Amino acid sequence: MKKYIRYIIITALFVMLLTGVDSCKKDYLKPEPLSFYEPSLTYVDATAMRAALTACARNLRFEYYGGNPPILTEMLFSETAVEGTTDKSGPAQDLNLVITPDLVQADDDDHNKIYVYWREAYSGIKYANTVISRIDDATYASTAERNAILGAAYFHRALRYYKLTNQFGDVPALMKEITAPKLDFYSTKREVILKKIKLDLDSALLWSSDAVNKGEVTKGAVGHLLAKVNLALGNFDDAITAASGVINGGVYSLMKTAFGAAAPPYYFPADSKVPVTLPNNVIWSLHRPENKSIAANKEGLFMIIDRFGDGQYATGMTIMRQAVAFWGSNINAPSGKKGTYDNLTADVILSNYYGRGIGRSRPSNYAQYEIWDDPNDLRHAKGNWMNMEDLIYNDPGLKSSNDPSYLKNLQLRNSTGGLTTTDTIRSWFGWPHYKVFVDDNENSPKQGGHSDWYLFRLAETYLVRAEAYFWKGQLDLAAADINAVRQRAGCAPITAAQVNMGTILDERARELFFEEARKTELTRISFLFAKTGKAAENGKVYSLDKISDNNYLYDRVMAKNNFYKNGIVTNHGDKYTISPYHILWPVPTRSINANSNGRINQNKGYTGYENNVPALDKIPD
Fold it and tell me: How far is CA 576 from its chain centroid?
């Protein structure tokens, strides 16, 4: 009973710690030693250490949950999407204007979330370092228990540094718990940090297990992250070994048939108040909230847990609000009358079926049309994928005026060829309904409720290994791994001759919407092209010394994202722009200025770069 009470107290302390991080706007570089408990009396056993790991797991929620989740910022620095909010300045559209060391420090839903990534990454590192530094201050039932906890902490720290080094490049390497104020941090070279976390993950892989609760660190998750870190380092054989251990380990497998207990997909035919249901399929099943963490699902390697009733940390997804078009406004019937209605008093309440979207994450033509190369792809099939023409005109004014379009499917143009929407950026695009439909019993209209989320999934492990084979020139093996994912979705296989980096990225875009950190992966790949000197599919060869001036990420975005390529201007007058130096984000000014006795470097292209000093070439003591 005493042990149980101590567990509750320890957990409550970490809840307080997390709450402080969420509400405090001070920089992580100004440590505030906790005064309400004594660490030497707290971290005394495995229960206490697991409570610290719970803080690490909760910290991961920030990326996908809540209003304007940071994953959208990752997406808009890529070829797949842009910021779709068109009625105000502030959202990250003109990246050349708004992505500065000062302007990225805003932390609200009308701005990008670069600072949130920086802040929350170091919060997660802090929690992990507490466990790592105090691992031998506690008692354990066995050495295996001690090592498993240490391995999980290594994983959490490595995950944050994997992101940081591919978002910001050279960053401070904090590998120990900070117990007193410290203002003399220095940036450490990106590759030095990656080598360190590789060694940590090598150890964690030996100590971890898949026989853990959902939301805890699995051996599969460690192997998956290790494969990605090895890729980042150019250790392609090691990446293949790590990925193969996950794929062939006998624990995980791609789901290939419908499973679980979930309502089937549907669509609205013309003149109908009731959607027509379609046969259930594996893609729909795989992404139903009620199926993600069940025992029958063998594909999830590492889950973020979010359940209704879990308290202040169960924030809900709001994913339908973010990724669904703003269909409730800006759409007229062909007659010119208001066509759609998002209020709950409509005869057909569309928000119950799709959520009330605001079009914040606006897909590019590449993501919406160009990557869909097979008509049998379940990920783009009717019911799984939603086009605007699948919705119906439901405004009550159409009914009362006997407008012939009432309850008929939407159409983009009227009989004279004019547009029926005043904002095609925000209010007219398709979305992967199978991914973003998360039922919502808290918000009216629905925005997207509670759901566990895949942080790592076996489908990505196949694509990670395919990339490693690509770098080695083993294109037949790369094609086989890509085809494992394609054929599960009903697509025809590709050949070895079709494999290049673009092929792999296309498959990632089809499979990993709202899962992968797209900018992080594009930056990692850009560094590899520069490091290896391998020609990209565009024929160009890149170099590390010019990485911020000439890189694969920028060239791919400009080739594939029609908004940046064409400099499209919103109704509000904001132009979509991006530059090569956006391969790395700016380090927030507040973190640099607060570090008065050291030097955190700024990335090239941003104010403050001229004050840089050589980054450290070893992990500081």
Answer: 22
